[in-house]
Amino acid sequence: MRLFIDAHLPRKLALQLKAAGYDVRHTLSLSQGNRTTDQDINKLSISEQRIVVTKDSDFVDSFWLQDQPWKLLLISTGNIRNEELLTLMLKNLDKLEQAFNDARFIELTRESLIVHI
Q: Which of 18, 19, 24, 36 has CB 3.0 to 4.6 Å from 32, enough for a Cys bridge?
């Protein structure tokens, strides 16, 4: 999986996913850093075929209305400690990878994966 981690999520998540063998970018690696616009993130997602990983519901709107980003993983956990988030992601990586073979929009909650078709 090729992933793009949005500004609302910690850089540590990107580092953990890289360590697990995934191709990951974080907004902090871009010239505008965490000020990179959603529109620019969507464009990069499409051009690089990366899954946008975010907590920002604005990406859900652009997904349904503009068919952007390329693929979307919405983290719907509410407030969560970084360590809990990292554990949740690592625990679900295999399921996410399988689900993204057939789906473009997946939501990860504390309890489940919701595949939006």
A: 36
Which residue segment(s) compose the domain that 77 sits in? Answer: 2-116
Inter-residue contact 32 to 40 (CB < 8 Å): yes
Does the pTM exceed 0.85?
yes
The closest of 42, 1, 8 to 26, measured between CA atoms, is 8
Residue 91 half-sphere exposure toward CB, CA atoms < 13 A: 12
Q: What is the CATH number of the domain that holds 83?
A: 3.40.50
How many domains does the chain fold into? Answer: 1
- pLDDT of 110 strictly over 90: yes
Beta strand spans in 19-104 (E): 23-26, 51-54, 71-75
